[in-house]
Write a structure and sequence with these properties.
This protein has about 200 residues and is α/β, with parallel strands linked by helices. The protein starts with 9 loop residues before the first strand and ends in a 5-residue tail after the last helix. The radius of gyration is 16 Å and the shape is globular. Helix content is about 40%, strand content about 15%. It has one domain: Aldolase class I (TIM Barrel, Alpha-Beta Barrel). The protein has an eight-stranded parallel β-barrel with strand order 1-2-3-4-5-6-7-8, surrounded by four helices.
């Protein structure tokens, strides 16, 4: 992990931009969230094609820069490099396809992990932070079986980089997450809809 990076305890994963609405509406909501103190953002917009995602990423990066927040793109390495974001978030599929760290050490690499092989592979490629999910039931992935805190604790103990608990998280679960070995929490709805860190 870049030495100058101090990770916050809250990691925002953005919701999908609403279909049929201007991207500027999404960016304005993000600005309100950043004004509330969020300093680590993953732009997750899987419904957008690559050109539109890159366009949105540039708008989001400008807002993040104004608030001294770091932006990780849930996208290809090519888009990350073209936009100039602070790093990448690897889905578990992309993570397992990596034979080496996909970005130089001056950029952050975040990885999504759901089981032991994924955590160990993230360690091997030198990821800087992990999300382990889903810890609790979540409205975003209703078909996924929650890990629960005991299993989360076991997976977090295997991780070399800092871990963020994801899935059903909110400000109310931060202490429990940290007791289970997390650096902090990652969330979509709980952090997108509020303005506090």
């Amino acid at each position: 992990m870049p030495e100058s990076i101090d990770l916050p305890q809250a990691y925002l994963v953005t919701p999908e931009p609403p279909a049929g609405r201007p991207l500027t509406d999404f960016v304005e909501q993000l600005e309100r969230v950043l004004e509330g103190g969020i300093r680590l953002v993953q732009l997750r917009a899987k419904t957008l094609g690559a050109p539109q995602y890159a366009e949105l990423a540039r708008l989001v990066l400008a807002v993040c820069r104004r608030h001294d927040a770091r932006l990780l793109l849930n996208a290809s390495v090519d888009i990350v490099q073209a936009v100039g974001s602070d790093g990448i978030h690897l889905t578990s599929t992309r993570l397992m396809a990596c034979v080496a760290r996909p970005l130089p050490s001056d950029r952050l690499v975040s990885a999504a992990c759901h089981d032991e092989p994924q955590v160990l592979h993230a360690n091997r490629i030198g990821a800087d932070l992990l999300t382990i999910s889903p810890v609790l039931p979540t409205a975003t992935h209703t078909s996924a079986t929650p890990l629960g805190w005991p299993r989360f604790r076991e997976l977090a103990a295997l991780a070399e980089p800092p871990v963020f608990a994801l899935g059903g998280m909110s400000a109310a679960t931060l202490d429990q997450a940290r007791e289970a070995g997390a650096h902090g929490i990652a969330a979509i709805r709980a952090l997108w809809g509020q303005t506090t860190n």
